[in-house]
Amino acid sequence: MTRKPKPAPPGSSADIEAMIRVDHAGEYGAVRIYQGQLAVLKRRKGAERSVETIEHMAEQEQRHLKAFDRLINERKVRPTALEPVWRIAGFALGAATAAMGEKAAFACTAAVEEVIDEHYASQIAALEDDPALKGQIEDFRADEAAHRETALKEGAEQAPGYKLLSETIKAGCRVAIKLSERI
Ligand SMILES: [Fe+2]
Ligand SMILES: [Fe+2]
After folding, report:
1. pLDDT by residue (tens digit) across 133-150?
2. CB-proximal residues (5 Å) to ion ligand 2
3. Neighbours of ion ligand 1 (CB under 5 A)
4. How confident is the model at residue 12 (pLDDT cuts 50, 70, 90)?
5. What is the 14 CA–ligand 1 centroid distance (Å)?
6. Residue 42's CB: how many other CB atoms inside 10 A?
7. How high is the pLDDT of residue 182?
8. How many angstroms separate the alpha carbon of residue 67 from the centre of ligand 2?
């Protein structure tokens, strides 16, 4: 008699590997988005305050990325094969939104962080058996929520075409998450 292999239950090691892989990819994407925004806004007169705000958020993304770099190594997780895609797509998304204006750049952050907040919340709920990883994700989720707050305070919702821009970016993030879990 043959048995079908069961899908990985939540909290299993395969499941946790997928979590680390997608989070590592996501934090890398976040770093690239901010690099793209800064490349544009640093050349714009009058954008100094936005540059400062974005630089602060980018430093926190670097901290998140470093932590997931460490986890990838410690737990021997295969990183996403899509790194070259996120390298280009992240930077392009950042540069394009910044080119549309400072408020559009913040609209991008608000949209991305809304999806990441949901994503981290669902991981936290599934990580009862891995308090170390759970604690780290809780810590990062608080930063992401603060980034979203900052972006909204900076006028994200006043960006031209906000609704469409936001929905498009959120849809893209959800696809990127699905892909990076597996590939
Ligand atoms: Fe982050
Ligand atoms: Fe963030």
Report:
1. 999 999 999 999 999 999
2. 144, 147
3. 27, 30, 61, 64
4. low
5. 22
6. 14
7. 87
8. 14
Q: HSE on the CB side for 26, CA within 13 Å? A: 29
Q: Is the dihedral of CA 75, 8, 124, 157 positive or negative?
A: positive
Share of the chain above pLDDT 90, in %: 90
- Give the C-alpha separation, 33 to 29, whole Å: 6
**What is the pLDDT, as a whole number, of residue 14?**
72
Residue 4 pLDDT class (50, 70, 90 cuts): low
Instruction: Determine contact, residues 47/102, Cβ cutoff 8 Å.
Output: yes
Instruction: Give me the residue label for tokens 């906000």.
Output: 162
Q: Is 70 exceeded by the pLDDT of residue 67?
A: yes
